[in-house]
Known about the structure:
Elements: E1 4-14, E2 18-21, H1 22-25, H2 33-40, E3 44-47, H3 54-69, E4 78-82, H4 93-100, E5 107-111, H5 117-130, E6 136-144, H6 154-157, E7 162-173, E8 182-190, E9 198-200, E10 213-215, H7 217-239, E11 248-251, H8 256-266, H9 277-280, H10 287-297, E12 306-313, E13 317-324
Parallel strand pairs: 4-5, 4-6, 11-12
Antiparallel strand pairs: 1-7, 2-3, 6-7, 8-13, 9-10, 12-13
Amino acid sequence: MSAYISKILGVGSYLPARAMTNDELSSLVETSDAWIQERTGIKKRHIAADGECTSDLGVEAARRAMAHAGITIDEVDMIVLATATPDLTFPASATIIQHKLGMRHGMAFDVHAVCSGFVYAMATADNFLARGQAKTALVIGAETFSRILDWTDRTTCVLFGDGAGAIVLRAEEQTESNAGEGVISTHLRSDGSFCDLLYVDGGPSSTKTVGHLRMQGNQVFKHAVNKISGSIEEAAKIANVAIEEVDWFIPHQANYRILQGVAKKLGIPVEKVVSTVADHGNTSAASIPLALDVAVKDGRVKKGDLILMEALGGGLTWGAALARF
Length: 325
Ligand code: UT7
């Protein structure tokens, strides 16, 4: 049986038009631009318009990723959507995206790992491609966290934003000449004993409501740096790659202090860290492909660069991925 690698053909992203500043938030809850910037690095976040759903954000990001890759939807045979804010309880928003993109073949499903969702979705697609069960995958992270925030809770509502990002993965038969290209290694972890640190207090089976996000932020913070660093070290070990070889560190964008903490712990120079948290806030599963798209389009990430992605989120779930762009 042939072995396949997953090459990244293209990347795209989409942010809703409306940007909300920290000053605007300070008219809703007792907070300040200074506190938010000092504790998180966030300056603004984008908020989806009324009627603009997660699938709409995902569709736009997917279209842009396909345009960047130079492919059409006819070539895609798999859509994996990472989201914790689906349009509906079911069907999976991935199938809604599939329909909106006019695709009636292949498969589409959601992956739910909250802020770690993109790394989980990419690992899932990579494994399907490696087994020859799909040829071209759209891996999308799309969220509308503004819909599940408690806008009276200053400890959470200042942190999150809406957005979407996507990549196109293409299976290519592994040869000597393409060794080490595409997705190199992924390392996923979870520990449900920490589920009460970050959760939504509603759901179809428990309260029959959607609920609001609840987080013990400082507890999550404590886990973030150690757990993320550990999974990066695992992913690097599996891939037999030294951290110094990494060209760009593209982390989940939850808090600038977490990004800095992980980079410092692993000895990654700050110039190699792609940070978009100031402009996007925490967009959960969308944050990594959003950051990747920014760094590709502004010319920092180039073809052949080694990129390191990581995330930690509700569950707790966490993980890391290494890929050659
Ligand atoms: O993406 C999923 C993973 N999520 C994360 O990784 C988030 C991880 N956590 C964090 O980023 C940080 O813990 C936060 C940004 C959420 C909070 O920063 P912190 O430095 O851990 O602050 P804290 O929670 O310990 O709160 C410090 C103080 C408290 O006041 P007292 O008790 O010291 O009087 C809070 O009530 O800051 C207060 N506070 C605020 N003050 C102004 C909390 N939120 C705000 C606010 N504005 N928005």
